[in-house]
Amino acid sequence: MNLEIIEEIRDVIENRKENPKKDSYVNQLLKNEDKILEKIGEESTELIISTKNLNQENKKQEFIHEAADLLFHTILLCQSQNIDFNEVLKELQKRRK
């Protein structure tokens, strides 16, 4: 597994910023910073709840889904603020040393 998917997501977000599409979910969020922040809060809460439910049967996929949602919206937030998500990844690398 590599991080190519992160690059693909970043590329889609940048493309939507430069070439907006009317019915694009990404564009709808990019128009309103508060909506992005609401989604971060919502997805964080859903990830917390799914973590608490992991001991229940068949809840692993729900956790994975919510973690992916939070990561997507975090990447979107970074890109909306003109912060390259690679900078976040570099920070993680620095912390490992």
TrEMBL record:
Picking any one GO biological process from the record gives: L-histidine biosynthetic process
Keywords annotated in UniProt: Amino-acid biosynthesis, ATP-binding, Cytoplasm, Histidine biosynthesis, Hydrolase, Nucleotide-binding
GO cellular component terms, alphabetically, are:
cytoplasm
Concerning CDD domains, the annotation shows: NTP-PPase_HisIE_like
- SUPFAM superfamilies under this entry? all-alpha NTP pyrophosphatases
Q: Record's PANTHER family?
A: HISTIDINE BIOSYNTHESIS BIFUNCTIONAL PROTEIN, HISTIDINE BIOSYNTHESIS BIFUNCTIONAL PROTEIN HISIE
Q: Which reaction does it catalyse?
A: 1-(5-phospho-beta-D-ribosyl)-ATP + H2O = 1-(5-phospho-beta-D-ribosyl)-5'-AMP + diphosphate + H(+)
Q: Which InterPro entries match?
A: HisE, PRib-ATP_PPHydrolase-like
Supply the Gene3D superfamilies for this chain: MazG-like
Q: What is this protein called?
A: Phosphoribosyl-ATP pyrophosphatase
- Tell me where in or outside the cell this protein is found: Cytoplasm
HAMAP family in the record: HisE (MF_01020)
Give GO terms: molecular function aspect only: ATP binding; phosphoribosyl-ATP diphosphatase activity
Per the record, the domain of life is Archaea
According to UniProt, this protein's pathway is:
Amino-acid biosynthesis; L-histidine biosynthesis; L-histidine from 5-phospho-alpha-D-ribose 1-diphosphate: step 2/9
> Which intervals of the chain form a coiled coil?
none
Q: What does the organism's lineage look like at the top?
A: Archaea, Methanobacteriati, Methanobacteriota, Methanonatronarchaeia, Methanonatronarchaeales
Q: Which Pfam families match?
A: PRA-PH
Enzyme Commission (EC) number? 3.6.1.31
Identify the enzyme class: hydrolase
The record, for NCBIfam families, names: histidine_hisI
Q: What is its main location?
A: cytoplasm
